[in-house]
Amino acid sequence: MKHTKVKDLLNSTTILQEVNAKGWVRTFRNNQFIALNDGSTINNIQCVVDFENTPEDILKRITTGASVSVTGSLVESKGAGQKYEIQVAKLEILGDSDAEKFPMQPKKHSLEFLRENAHLRVRTNAFGAIMRVRSVLAHAVHTYFQEKGFVYVNTPIITGSDAEGAGEMFKVTALPFDNTPRTEDGKVDYKKDFFGKETNLTVSGQLEGETFAMALGQIYTFGPTFRAENSNTSRHLAEFWMIEPEVAFNDLDDNMDLAEDFIQYVIKYTMDKCPDDLKFLESRLLDEEKQKPQAERSEMALLDKLNFVLENNFKRVSYTEAIEILRESTPNKKKKFSYIIDEWGADLQSEHERYLVEKHFKCPVILFDYPANIKAFYMRLNEDGKTVRAMDILFPGIGEIVGGSQREERYDVLVEKMKALGIDEEELWWYLDTRRFGSAVHSGFGLGFERLVLFVTGMTNIRDVIPFPRTPMNAEF
Predict the structure, then answer these.
(1) What DSSP letter does each residue of 212-247 carry, written as one string?
(2) What is the pLDDT of residues 158-206, one digit of tens each?
């Protein structure tokens, strides 16, 4: 008979005579009670085995991690904590699991241990919840933009341009390493490579996205991006996912409105769809924080923090005002910051961003009008000649979650900025064409998807919100 998901069984409104459920054993108690989970929900369904009439060799194979099929009657549960249970009439072992070797035993494992077993960690309650939330968040992203008439664009993963100008990119090559072809001056001869030029894994789909926005009006990308930054922190990955909308005829104010509305929508959508998972993750976070000193604990529980973002407008503050606040702040004056703010023009660090959000304004903050020399070449230069129409959205516990800008639509100004930074016009001839032919004011932003998942799940390490993290010296699985 066709099996029914555990989620549907637990939400059933009628007592069913006979049902079939398939899943993995979480625990088996007293040779009688199986806690069965199939990944459809964080909740297990209790399956009661008639152990007196079940062969001993079958009972011994009901171990944590084993996959089983149970058929029986769905009845009201006599035990506390669950509405229904299955009185098992037939039990079949689908896949054995050696209890002594299976790593995911029903006990508390460290997050580091779970990362080392990323192929199995999703069988735990925490990671099952995280990945379901991640899935729903991704669906919310598409739902939001599709409902607003945006066109989904798949920008290339292999690219010849460096959108950020950071130079920290993974090279893509088919050239042999032991006999690399060289030019007369000894440099690698990329003309003999697969694409006939130097290529890399993309750091952003923005530049290509802009070309589509200048024809389709409003577009978004949502795909993998790569940074070869040798950064072993809790906030960085070498492979991660980016959401990047680009909108023609939007200025910076429109861009800030879009970003704020978008973030509030996807959080609300996920809270509505994942109440059980988020409630579990909130409890998990509370337990984790009990181990920390009082000063390091979050001021708000997870669901309170999410509701706070929904119920409060984001505070919009200029970079200049923010620098003044930071310069006059107690941690700056007492040299508690690792990076002391002395003068206008400093590039803000995570500690500064979190101070503004968590201590000073106590709400999400949008900083705008940054110094031109710390931002990318494509951001629109303000009339003062020293700031650009950039914006960053800062969140509690995370710091920067969104970076965006009004793009420089003036051909002459863009070319001058590229020259000043040594960016080759010939490499980006196609990008400059969008300013030659029918240019218009346009804006966009990038949101690192994993940082959004971090915020919504309450996790503190970005390696725990992506299925298989890619970090320096780690490409396992």
Answers:
(1) HHHHHSEEEEEEEEE------STT--SEEEEEEEEE
(2) 998 765 555 589 999 999 999 999 999 999 999 999 999 999 999 999 9
Rounded to whole angstroms, how far apart are CA atoms 87 and 53? Answer: 13
Beta-bridged to residue 218, according to DSSP, are 247
**Integer CA distances (angstroms), 417 to 214, 372, 381, 439, in order:** 21, 10, 9, 17
Q: Is 251 exposed, middle or buried (0-12, 13-18, 19+ CB in 10 A)?
A: middle
- Burial class (CB within 10 angstroms; exposed 0-12, middle 13-18, buried 19+) of 39: middle
Structure tokens at 183: 């030019």
Q: How far apart are CA 276 and CA 272, in angstroms?
A: 10
pTM score of the predicted model: 0.94
Six token digits for residue 128:
């099952």
Alpha helices in 103-151 (DSSP H): 111-116, 125-147
Look up residue 329 and give its two tokens: 């702040």
Sheet of 442-448: strand order equals 151-152, 218-226, 239-248, 442-448, 399-406, 387-395, 365-371, 315-318
Q: Which residues contact 149 (CB under 8 A, 6 or more apart)?
A: 218
Number of Cβ atoms within 10 Å of the Cβ of 161: 21
For the chain, the straight-line distance linking the first and the last C-alpha, in angstroms and rounded, comes to 35
pLDDT in tens, 278-323: 999 999 999 988 888 887 777 789 999 999 899 989 999 999 999 9
C-alpha pair distances (Å), 98 with each of 25, 27, 65, 106, 125: 12, 13, 8, 14, 20
Query: Is the separation of the CB atoms in 302 and 282 below 8 Å?
Result: yes
DSSP lists the bridge partners of residue 88 as 72
CA gap 217, 385 in Å, rounded: 28
